[in-house]
Description:
The chain is mainly α. Helices cover 50% and strands 3% of the residues. The longest helix is centred in the C-terminal third of the chain and has 35 residues.
Amino acid sequence: MATLPAQGLTIGDLSQRTGLAVSAIRFYESHGILAPVRNAGGHRRYARSDIRRLSFVIAAQNMGFALAEIASHLADLPPHRAPNRRDWERISDDFRVKIDARIADLQRMRERLDGCIRCGCLSLDTCPLYNPDDRSAADGPGPRYLLGD
Length: 149
């Protein structure tokens, strides 16, 4: 079990510093984001680096990344250490690839929806959203024409 200085942060301290509810901190702990140690009285104590770890989680979630993905990046770090510059470069390279793919998907969808919105569905013979008898079901689930099929 890792050790922290006796003056490690309490869960209340961490809550106040991050703006997260105590219940949210416990939630993140249950997902392996944080690994507090217990003092002699059995109370959780957090490292100062946990403030940065939680800040990273909040920022990554705001960018739309799933908690499981964020946790997998943090699992590669030693406990009680926030991402450093080298870690962040590795993580951000991965995020950048995924963000670029999302942007491309959104742009493709915007271009296709734009044409549909302007036509007002008066040209059903050429509309890429038109799907008589659910023919596109054979191509897989989801909005196949919008996804590029």
